[in-house]
From TrEMBL:
Domain of life assignment: Bacteria
Classification of source organism: Bacteria, Pseudomonadati, Bacteroidota, Cytophagia, Cytophagales
Pfam families: CMD (PF02627)
Protein's recorded name: Alkylhydroperoxidase like protein, ahpd family
Keywords, sorted A to Z: Oxidoreductase, Peroxidase
SUPFAM superfamilies hit by this protein: AhpD-like
Domain Carboxymuconolactone decarboxylase-like: 25-105
Length: 117
C-alpha cells in the first residue's frame, strides 16, 4: 500500500469507528468541520488553502495530508501549493520545515497516483 492509500484507508477506518459511537459532541464537531469547508462567501479552494496553511503552522501532519488531498482533488497546481507552503513556512518559521518536507513528499505521492490512473 502506498502513502496516499495508507493514509486514506486509516483515516476512513478510524473516522468510521469514532462516529459509530453514540457521542453527540464528537459527531457535532465532525459535522462542524465538514460544514466549515463547504462553499460560502469564501470558495472551497480558498478554504482548503487556508486549512493547509493553518495545519502546517500548527504542525499537524494528518491535517496537512488531508488538505493536500482536497487541494489535489480541486485541481490545484503544484505552483499554487508551493505558494501556500511558502506562506505557512513564513508564518510558522523554521519549525515548519520538517512538516514542509512531509507535505512535499505527500504531494509528490498524489502526483504519482494521478499518473498511474
Amino acid at each position: 500500500m502506498n502513502l496516499v492509500e495508507e493514509f486514506n484507508s486509516y483515516r476512513t477506518r478510524m473516522n468510521e469507528s469514532i462516529l459509530s459511537e453514540d457521542n453527540k459532541v464528537l459527531k457535532r464537531f465532525f459535522n462542524l468541520d465538514t460544514n466549515a469547508y463547504a462553499a460560502g462567501a469564501v470558495d472551497v479552494k480558498a478554504k482548503e488553502m487556508i486549512g493547509l496553511s493553518c495545519s502546517m503552522v500548527l504542525r499537524c501532519d494528518d491535517c496537512v495530508r488531508y488538505h493536500l488531498g482536497k487541494c489535489f482533488e480541486l485541481g490545484m497546481k503544484r505552483e499554487e501549493v508551493f505558494e501556500v507552503f511558502s506562506i505557512a513556512t513564513l508564518i510558522g518559521g523554521s519549525i515548519v520545515i520538517p512538516h514542509l518536507r512531509r507535505a512535499v513528499e505527500y504531494w509528490e505521492a498524489l502526483e504519482v497516483e494521478k499518473e498511474k490512473a
